[in-house]
Input
Amino acid sequence: MTTPRNHTSDANYSPDGRPRARALGIPFDGVPGPLNSITDVPHLTVGHVTLISGDGELVVGEGPVRTGVTVVLPRGIEGIGRPCTAARYSLNGNGEMTGSAWIDEVGMVDLPIAITNTHSVGAVHRGIVQWIAEHRRDLAATWLLPVVAETWDGYLNDINGDHVTSEHVSQAIESATTGALQEGSVGGGTGMNCYSFKGGSGTASRIVRYGTSTYTVAALVQANFGDREELRIAGVPLGAELSDNNPISTTDWFERDLARALPPGAGSVIVIIATDAPLLPGQCAAMARRVPLGLARTGTTGGHFSGDLFLAVSTGNEGLHPSAYQSADPTDDDYENLRFIPWGRIDPFLAAVVHAVEEAVVNALVVNADMVGRDDHRSPALPHDRVVEAMRRVDSQH
Output
């Protein structure tokens, strides 16, 4: 493993000093934002609450606990209730993202977006509703349709133990920051695995220049997908070379827990794409559809047992009105106006999605450590030294 450093002003290192992918010399396409994070999008905030406790044998309701919740506020806490244009895409529907039908209907989101484990969706949904009912009674007077998405952490976590609560959701909302984000085993990504290494939360951003303007396109990934044999980093095939030390795919736990045996590549991935570029809902949908191309650059071919769900939001049209019941007759000025990037100039924004998603996945792998969870199930960290050596060897051959 690479030794953490104390200086953390460099975006190539996490806030706690651990190296991110670029600190290992891994090359990526595109120009990152100042933080190389989804929080490079102006006003957008992210909050993580991480729950880690207990060791040893699984006792439902008591642990071990390896889970959490992540909340994204596209316009920050003060902007809850102010819509963003939005769209979602499902590469594979073996997963959950609440609020999807309403996003499809109106092309907007105006509430917090949360990611957690599969069996905590209800608690997190309730937590968002409860926070809004307590702090924004104007919004809670009618109905609320928050977005809550999930991936499965039952290999490491007591997933049936109801450990994520409404209070944790409140903590995530109220602690959400515009600053640099912790990655790896944090928030909703705490108990996740990616390519049979320790996975979790990762982020990255790209700058797109447009005339005299500069826009940010960024990704936040909860990575819990991929077969070890498929892994590629910066185009270098690593799966076969790193095929050892893979307890998730061996009898290490199959023999003890056959009912939970996972096929290779199972797990799921949630990706939130955010930009301050002004976009139509249909253009957000085009961005969401590019997420699989970024995932594929890390090697995955997708799997039936992996729920792969993606949401893209644009904060570029400030002042949009939510879809609210109107009792008065419309006036001559009662119209909505959207400013948007012409379709013929959309390609650089689509490319930025692909590049940011690829790097966010690799960051989730790199900024991580070994984890042992329920029943001593073990998830090894990506070995930095072996990755660097393999990439150097490939470079020398070219």
User: Anything to note?
Assistant: DSSP finds eight helices and 16 strands in the chain. The first helix runs from residue 100 to 106. The longest strand covers residues 200-210.
